[in-house]
Amino acid sequence: TAETIRLMGDKVSAINAMKKAGVPCVPGSDGPLGNDAEKNQTIAKK
């Protein structure tokens, strides 16, 4: 449906929908990164 296409076009919404449906997801994919560049670089190095 058009709603499904729209939902899957947004990664955060897609991950939330997949988790709700019981689809296994990559650990740590809990939502978008914030706007703190230093914190995001630290996360990326893990």
Q: What brief labels describe this structure?
A:
46 residues, mainly alpha, 3 helices, 59% helix, elongated, catalytic activity
SSE topology:
Blueprint: H1 2-9, H2 11-20, H3 37-45
Characterization of this structure:
Helix content is 59%, strand content 0%. The chain has a domain at 1-27. The longest helix is centred in the middle third of the chain and has 10 residues, at 11-20. The mean pLDDT is 83. It is an all-alpha fold. The protein contains three helices and no strands. The chain has helices at residues 2-9, 11-20, 37-45. Residues 27-46 are annotated as: Disordered. GO terms for molecular function: ATP binding; catalytic activity. InterPro entries: ATP_grasp_subdomain_1 (IPR013815).
Outline:
The chain has helices at 2-9, 11-20, 37-45. With 46 residues, it is an all-alpha fold. It has a domain at 1-27.
Helix content: 55-70%
Mean pLDDT: 83
Distance between the termini: 37 Å
Sheet/helix structural class:
mainly alpha
> SSE string, helix = H, strand = E?
HHH
Number of strands: 0
Uncertain segments are none
Quaternary organization? single chain
Q: Report the sheet with the most strands, covering strand number, pairing sense and barrel closure.
A: none
Beta-strand fraction estimate: under 5%
Query: How many separate helices?
Result: 3
Shape, per Cα inertia axes: elongated
- Round the Cα radius of gyration to an integer and report it: 13 Å
